[in-house]
Amino acid sequence: MKFSANLGFLWSELPLTDAIRAAKVAGFDAVECHWPYDTPAEDVALALTDTGLNMLGLNTIRGDLSKGENGLNALPNRMTEARVAIDQAIEYAHITGTANIHAMAGFAQGVEAHDVFCENLTYACAKAAPHGIGIVIEPLNHYDAPGYFLSTTSQAQQIITEVGAPNLKLMFDCYHVQLMEGDITNRLTKLQSIIGHIQFASVPDRSTPDRGELSYDHIFAHLKSLGYAAPLGAEYKPNGPTPPTLDWLTKYKS
Ligand SMILES: O=C(O)C(=O)[C@H](O)CO
Ligand SMILES: [Mg+2]
C-alpha cells in the first residue's frame, strides 16, 4: 500500500516545507495539504523536489474565517471571490505540481447553491484541465460541518454527472462517508470510476486507522483487490507529535 501524509493534520506544528521533509523521513510515499498559501509555492516545490514526494492535493480557501466560512464555491452571490480562489489554487498547484484541487463548497443549501456550485466547478475544471490538474469535491459529515452544502457521496455523484467534466472527481474520505452513509466497502466498489483520491481516519474520533468502528485491514485489502494503487491520504488528528502515532504505517508498509 502507498500512503500520503495529510500535512493539514500531520506535522501541522512545522512549517510546510519541514513537514514535507518529515513525511519523507517517516516513510510516506506522497503528501497533501489543506491551505498552503502562506508558504511560497516555490519553497514547497523545492521541498518536493528534494524529497522526491508528490503533492496530491490542496484546498481552495475557506473564505472569511472570522465568519466561520468553509468554502465559497456553492455560495450564491460570491462567484467572483470563488473564482479568484479557484485561480489562486490552480496557480499554486501548477507551480508545485499538485495533482488535485479540492473545490470547497461552503455552508449553503438549496437549488441556487447547487446551480452555483455546478457553474463554479465547470469553470474550475476548464481552467485546470490544460495544466493536467484535477478538481475534487468532498462530502463532509454533519457533525463536524453542520450545514455544509455537500454531505453525501450520492449528492457528489449527481453533481459530477451533471457537470460532466473528465477532470472532476470525488474525494472519498472514509471518515466522513462512514459518519454520513456507511456501507464503505460497497460504496468504494460502486464509485471507483469517479474517485479521485481517498482519505482515512478512525471513526468516530478521527485518530489513527488502527482503532474505532472501521476495519482498515479490511478496507485497504478491499482497495487492493479493486486494483486501487494510488497513495491513500492519512488525514487524522495526531493530538500531539506525529511520529509516535505511526505504528499503523510501519504495519501496512511491511
Ligand atoms: O476535512 C476534510 O476531511 C478535508 O479533507 C478537507 O480538506 C477540508 O478540510
Ligand atoms: Mg478529508
Description:
With 254 residues, the chain is α/β, with parallel strands linked by helices. It has one domain: Divalent-metal-dependent TIM barrel enzymes (TIM Barrel). It contains nine helices and nine strands. It has helices spanning 16-26, 41-51, 79-96, 111-128, 153-163, 174-180, 184-191, 216-225, 247-253; strands spanning 3-6, 30-32, 54-55, 57-59, 100-102, 134-137, 168-173, 195-200, 232-234. Strands 3-2-1-9-8-7-6-5-4 form a nine-stranded parallel sheet. α8 links the parallel β8 (195-200) and β9 (232-234). The model has no long low-confidence stretch (mean pLDDT 98). The structure holds ligand LPHNJNCV and magnesium ion (MG). The ligand O=C(O)C(=O)[C@H](O)CO binds next to loops.
Q: Which term fits the overall shape?
A: globular
CATH architecture: Alpha-Beta Barrel
Arithmetic mean pLDDT: 98
Look at the structure and give the CATH class.
Alpha Beta
Largest sheet: 9 strands, parallel
* Poorly predicted residue ranges: none
CATH homologous superfamily caption: Divalent-metal-dependent TIM barrel enzymes
**CA-atom Rg in angstroms:** 17 Å
Are any ligands bound, and if so which? the ligand O=C(O)C(=O)[C@H](O)CO, magnesium ion
- Overall structural class, as computed from helix and strand content, comes to alpha/beta
Order of adjacent strands in the largest pleated sheet = 3-2-1-9-8-7-6-5-4
Order of helices and strands: EHEHEEHEHEHEHHEHEH
